[in-house]
Amino acid sequence: MPFDPTHAFNDLPALPPAVDVESRAVLKACISARAAVAELKAAGRLIPNQGVLINSIPLLEARASSEIENIVTTTDQMFLFDGVSEGEADPATKEALRYRTALWQGHQALKNRPLSTNTAIQICRVIKGVDMDIRRTPGTTLANDHTRQVVYTPPEGEALLREKLANWERWMHGTLPGSAEIDPLVRMAVGHYQFEAIHPFTDGNGRTGRIINLLYLVEQGLLDIPVLYLSRHILRHKAGYYGGLSAVTEAGAWEPWLLYMLAGVTDTARWTLDKILAVRALLEETAERMRRDAGPVYSRELAELVFVRPYCRIAHVVEAGLARRQTASVYLKALVAAGILREHKVGREKVFLNPAFLDLLKQD
Is 215 in the same domain as 79? Predict the structure, then answer.
């Protein structure tokens, strides 16, 4: 029976795929991707304070992944409201920040349990800020943003969805016949298609699936922390992302999809690597400037803090144990006087921007 986008795709084939997913072209692309990810993993260890990376690259990922779903905010807005009350933030910024929270909580959860359907449920709940669960009622469809024509109707029925998710879990963990020998990057790409095709939630599936990609790289030991900015590639090549997913569904065209994803991993691993090296250089340069131009308040911890918190508040200095409130204010004002930070007022509160770091993060 030919594929009909208006009918529930209950016949979505179980994994593993019926074709050999590790074609010659895929294996060649995989070698490049693995090398790029290995370099990224090594570079991540060059910055001793991992908070500098954890608080920056994932926020860029959160913004881009949300923008793929037409939830648009800015890097500045995300850093401004990161870690403080989001009451004044616009809805798009709140939702993008919840993505970053879901990524971080998922990373922490990996220490206690492997990726699973329950992980996906928890991630989706945090992203949406409501009590999401596996879809129980029919009627979910995916439509073209412009024409509103239905392009896909995912499988229906909670029992069927859970059965397909159990199969997906086994694929991801290499416990299906032949799956253990498949390279983890290929397993990730196949698994991402399958998760999106199952479409287990009423909303938030794409963002949940993209978080799972990053967590999977950590779980498989390819990265230490989830700092691959993969959504950058997807956002820049959005038509290829959705076209690739559709081609697998409609024609079983696995190779183009896998090559797309592996190219994305290679591209963004190299981009993130360059960004990390630039961050490291700027951090060292800033620490030296602080030592030279603001010597009485200099400490390595303070230099790192204004990178962990590029919108730094007095409370952040206090929470880091570097000074009491009044002294913390003196420290930050000294960095303003030295030209390292810029003072900015948000409502009644003063925040201290690290403009050089923010500019670096926004450079593409």
Answer: yes
* Residues contacting 150, CB < 8 A, separation 6+: 5, 6, 141, 142, 143
Q: Which of 217, 252, 271 is the last residue before a domain boundary?
A: 271
Q: What is the CATH number of the domain that holds 309?
A: 1.10.10.10
Query: Is 146 marked as a binding-site residue?
Result: no
Q: Looking at 107, 199, 233, 316, which residue is catalytic?
A: 199
- Asked if residue 210 belongs to a known ligand binding site, the reply is yes
203 belongs to an annotated ligand binding site: yes
Range of the domain at 357: 299-362
Radius of gyration of the CA atoms of the chain, in A: 22
199 is catalytic: yes
DSSP structural state of residue 74: -
Write the DSSP string, 182-203.
Answer: S-HHHHHHHHHHHHHHH--SSS
CA pair distance 299, 296, nearest whole angstrom:
9
What is the mean predicted confidence (pLDDT) over 133-147? Answer: 90
205 labelled binding-site residue: yes
pLDDT in tens, 229-254: 999 999 999 999 999 999 999 999 99
